[in-house]
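Example 3.2
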Amino acid sequence: MLRNLPQFLLILGFSMSCSSPGSRDTAKTAGGTSTPTGARLFVGYNCLDCHGADGSGAMGPSFQDGRWHFGGSPGEVFESIYQGRPDGMPAWGGRISNDQIWMLTAYVRSLSSKDLSTENFTGKTVERTGH
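Structure, written as tokens:
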């Protein structure tokens, strides 16, 4: 049982840092420098190879359409970058600092213009119906 204690403490610490409201606000309030720095990190860590230079998508999903596969809140985006996602998104946690992940989070979220999930291709809003 004690073998898994360090891993448990690491997971517990990570989940607590992600659920802390102060941590989520870091992406927005880091002296106004988080978005430009996040943009440089986006290029530097080759995020654009999968997500496109302007976040419009390529092999990876677009950030511009407001359709977040794993949630678009700051904490959820942080978690996607930190832990990675199945079928392609690498885990960056432990490879880069949490501050850099928050800066990437701020930048990626700034690319989302609006939620298009209820718009058809003509741009008109359509009503969702259940099955």
